[in-house]
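Let us walk through a complete example step by step. Step one is to write down the protein sequence. Step two is to encode the small molecule, calcium ion, as a SMILES string so that its atoms and bonds are unambiguous. Step three, shown after the inputs, is the structure prediction itself.
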Amino acid sequence: MVRRAGLRLGPALRRCPARGLAGTVASDHVSDGGFENAALAPWTTWVNTDVGAAATFQLESSDVADGQQALRADVSNAGQGVDWHIAVQHRDISIVQGQSYDVMFMAKGSASQPISIGLQKQVANWDNYGLWQQVTLTPQWTKVQLTFEASVTAVDGELGFSIGVVVGTVWLDGVQITEHPADVFTRAFTNGLAVLKRHA
Ligand SMILES: [Ca+2]
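Step three: the predicted structure of the complex.
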């Protein structure tokens, strides 16, 4: 005999996050997302000097969001003012088509200024892999979380922070990519709580 869950008491409520349930253990796809290494590697940088853009990148130890170091990027010439003309990037990100991911990081700017966060193929022809989003930084450290769905299965993803729009300084720390927890809906029943897991 099948045990019934009882009478529904109300509408389904979305519970987020769903950590702790089987199958939702998150893993991190970024190596040294906290910029704690002695060198910037495995992070790489890109400045399109052909159009006059100029910037320097360094590990910052006096103004960090977590740990002992953060990334500091000083844009001294924005050139054509195009975001991706100056960028800091992390290659070899593995993704699975249809899986949703959370990109989390801490960032601030010397002023209110836009940056763009994207995930694309790390070699030509730079196909976008499902993420390209602009975020406006403020002079305070702010935690940002973006969720996107991978458009392909690949092991050559490049996570990029594109900062070439304006002259100024950008600080970055605590970068993570994790699998987005499965959306879980719960409904209160008269004799318990039913957990409804939505499958993609
Ligand atoms: Ca750090």
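Step four is interpretation. The two ends are 30 Å apart (CA to CA).
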